[in-house]
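User: Hey, my collaborator sent me this sequence without any context and asked if I could get a structure. I don't really work with proteins. Can you help?
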Amino acid sequence: MVVAAFATAVAAGTALLMLPAAKAGPGGGAPVLEALFTSTSAICVTGLVVVDTPTYWSGFGQAVILGLIQAGGFGIMTSASLLVMLLSHRLNLRARLTAASETKTLGLGEVRSVVLGVAKVSLVLEAATAAVLIPRYRFGYGEPWPEAVWLGGFHAVSAFNNAGFVLYADSLVGFVTDPWICLPVALAVIAGGLGFPVLFELRRRWRRPRGWSLHTKVVLWTSGAFLLGGTAFVTAVEWNNPATLGTLDWNGKLLAGFFQGVMPRSGGFSSVDTAEMNPASWVGIDVLMFVGGASAGTAGGIKVTTFAVLFYVIYAEVRGDTGVNILNRRLPGEVQRQALTVALLSVAAVVVSTVVFIVFTDINLDQSLFEVVSAFATVGLSTGVTAQLPPVEQVLLVVLMFVGRLGPITVGSALALRQRVRLYELPEERPVIG
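Assistant: No problem. I've predicted the 3D structure and written it out in structure-token form, which is a compact way to encode the shape of the chain:
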């Protein structure tokens, strides 16, 4: 049902973007592929584009994209559940089950409060981000109030939902040294990437870190490590690159390095030209994009919890431990198998798609891998080749965005719910490993 709901939303968004009113200038509506690509990218909160958002789409088209971003980041079934609650003040069992699959709610009795909490947190954080951006656009750049409100609101929603859509042709390159634009956007991306369960717990127990759940502790520690590591790596590699950070002063370099270290976690915004980065930076960003953010949030990737579980599995094996422990808690065997399955299936999807890119296009390995990982992890960063891709490869990116957004959700939920009891055990035998 979740997959069908997202597919229906993509189809509805495509139909709306094909209307003549959605496209700027004369000439009728947008072609099917351009509308489909943009709709999928928005509903899957990715940010990859094949046309220039501020010039190609009209105000109506941009509003449609904004609505798709909000619905996609919030969750289609979660949005539907909220609408049902507002209209009928209750949720039936089917609605509770589908909403629980998106929000990772552990108990069906909690679904109503979780859905309302998701709505409140989303709106509050988006409003807080917009409250900083709107005055900056108005007084810092002389935008009229209506334009400042639209720019601030659009980018606030896009940032919190980790969508990466912007109303500037060069993303946020023009604001590379402006902390009043870059920092609110980066903080909104970080908040959305932590996931709603973590945000809920921080709101309730922010003064009692010892009482935090294992999930919250793992997300915060792993996310912090990736943010610091990503920032340090990108800043160091690009420090003397004249096409990115090389011409900035120290403050500008640190701000731009931090911004570029945050965005691969699924944000998709860019304050420097990604196409001009060193290939080494692309490889590091590939890793950051593939891991992504936390579960039950607006970020993509295999999720930091999956990475942390696999890391501790390897750590336990190297130490020779009989069990896998994280922060004084033992991990069940099924959790380890779920993490391994999600990670390996994701690797397979990326490898196969990258091979297809290399075989059927003239794009080199570095750029092919970057575009594929960006689409699958629903990030939206690009080396500038997306718009020049043949239609077949653009359709492949559409599929990757859809699978990347829903694959970890559906696979993880299916594995968690699928329990088969076997009444016997087969004889044990060990193959040679290594």
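In plain terms: The chain has one domain: 2-417. You can pass these tokens on to your collaborator as they are.
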